[in-house]
Amino acid sequence: MKIYLGFLLLLFISIYSCSPNNKKEQVIYFGGRVAHAESDSIYLLLNNREKAFALDFDGNFSDTIQIQDEGYKKLSIDREEFTLYIVPGDSLILDTDLNQIETRFTFTGKGSNRNNYLISKSFKTDAFLSHNSELFRLSPTAFRNEIKTFNDALLKSLDKIDVSSAFINKEEKNLNYDYINFLYTYKDSFNYYNPTLEQLPINFLTELEQMDLDNDEDYRTYQSYRGIVLTDLQEKLYQGYSADALLQKIKSTSIKNGFLSALIYELDPKDPNSEVVYKAIKKHCTYQPWLDEADERMKKN
């Protein structure tokens, strides 16, 4: 589900890699029924591609897809997005009715436990954020405590279901990135929600200073980590760092490509700063469709 405030668009940027990959692909099965869907297909969004699953007149679908790596993926149904965790060899059967989505959205089959947890987490997070103005008006300490208590409850709920220790470790790390992402959002929106209060303590985001913000694997795996990294790069741009200098420092191919995609999206020929950014894109980007997109954006009147 779309659950975060602020700079959300960057969280869904596609990740492209030009490096060869010799891993053997494995098949997963995905089928089921989506009742009362408005569109004729649903989509599984992978790192650099998407797979469409056609719905019949009654919302039934059935197909397979080949993947190489397990990890967090996105399921897109109409205008809603749900996080799944897919493992090669999974066999997932979805049953949902979009007219009663919060009470009828369940998986059965191999891999269902971890994905039912993630769906439940999405709905719980939406409910948690339903009064976001009250949440973001809390003091910095109270806000931290609220987020930590919420995340601890989510992690504790994993003890009650049959999932692998590997997934628990991944989700524990995922929740930590969610936590830091919430702190980042609070920091960026603090003056809006608390105009009469003094500025945030200087050390409010110490967790960010301790993070490795150039981790290719985590960028490909965790949505919140992508949001943190790309928002940090965007803030550095606003602080006066050049796009060229930032791109030169990035070692991760996935992060560099994600940042390039974000830069291309923001190109505006009427913005005098875009010309410098455009030159940096031309220098660092090797993916021709993106170069073509950058050219087109700079031609617009």
UniProtKB/TrEMBL annotation:
Q: Which domain of life is it from?
A: Bacteria
Q: What is this protein called?
A: DUF4369 domain-containing protein
Xref: PROSITE patterns: PROKAR_LIPOPROTEIN
**Species whose genome carries this gene:** Chishuiella changwenlii
